[in-house]
Specification:
The protein has 233 residues and is α/β, with parallel strands linked by helices. 32% of the residues lie in helices and 19% in strands. The chain is built from 8 helices and 10 strands. The protein has helices at residues 15-37, 51-57, 85-92, 113-127, 153-157, 184-187, 200-206, 216-220, and strands at residues 9-11, 40-44, 67-71, 73-75, 102-104, 130-135, 165-168, 179-182, 193-198, 227-232. The strands form 2 sheets. A 7-stranded parallel beta sheet has the order 1-10-9-6-2-3-5, sandwiched between helices. A 3-stranded antiparallel beta sheet has the order 4-8-7.
């Protein structure tokens, strides 16, 4: 792995400090991209960790009417499902002034994950370029829904693919439900990638040298887009 590309882990003393810094970082990146491009997309990750970040971000002053939010990945469930990332983002981020932002879903009541991925392509393309891509990292080194050992991993990481959105089948070792994921090609069309990480195990995972077989190594070992790793215990 190219050590020259390895970003340093930015350590915060508390999770509240982490959430504040992350929200400020996202807001600055989106505002800067709107100023330079006239619009900005935001690829938002799911899970419990970013929820306090989204709550803070929703209160900040941004040109929200020029921002389009989409998701890094989604479970193949409707927004009403408790596990839906769309539901999370609508509840925690798209409130108040932030409700003026556009939203490009990955799930729209399609017949199959493959149909969902096909239907989502145009909305994601319209959201590009992203002002910022926010990602979590799994204990197995996955990001978005690009899991080690999954049959679509190679295509998901391939920068030559024509796809921006990919159906991810369930199965061993993961995931437990079919998912829809942005490809690495889509995620990297951004001004900044932010990895939001908590817990000692994930900190150790990201402290170099990172195993080059892990999907997250593709993010760390590239020089197209700056990467920031924000961490707290």
């Amino acid at each position: 792995m190219g050590a020259r590309n390895m970003p340093k882990i930015e350590v915060f003393p508390t999770r509240d400090a982490l959430y504040d810094a992350a929200a400020s970082t996202l807001a600055n990146a989106l505002t800067t991209t709107v100023a330079s491009h006239g619009k900005a997309g935001f690829a938002a990750t799911g899970g419990s960790t970013p929820e306090p970040v989204y709550q803070r971000l929703s209160t900040l002053t941004l040109p929200w009417d020029k921002v389009t939010v989409t998701l890094t990945d989604e479970r193949f469930v409707p927004a009403s499902d408790p596990s839906s990332n769309e539901g999370l983002v609508r509840r925690s981020l798209l409130q108040g002034e932030a409700a003026k932002a556009g939203f490009a879903p990955l799930y729209a009541d399609p017949a199959s994950p493959e149909a969902a991925a096909d239907a989502a392509q145009a909305g994601v393309a319209e959201a590009l370029p992203f002002g910022v891509t926010l990602l979590g990292v799994g204990g197995d080194g996955h990001f978005a829904s690009l899991f080690p050992g999954n049959p679509v991993l190679s295509e998901g990481l391939d920068l030559e693919t024509e796809r921006l959105v990919l159906a991810v089948p369930k199965g061993e070792p993961a995931p437990d439900l079919p998912r829809i994921s942005l490809t690495f090609k889509a995620l990297i069309q951004t001004s900044l990638i932010v990895l939001l990480v908590t817990g000692e195990a994930k900190r150790k995972l990201l402290e170099g040298p990172v195993d080059p077989s892990l999907p997250v190594a593709r993010i760390l070992d590239q020089d197209r887009v700056p990467v920031r790793i924000l961490w707290a215990e």
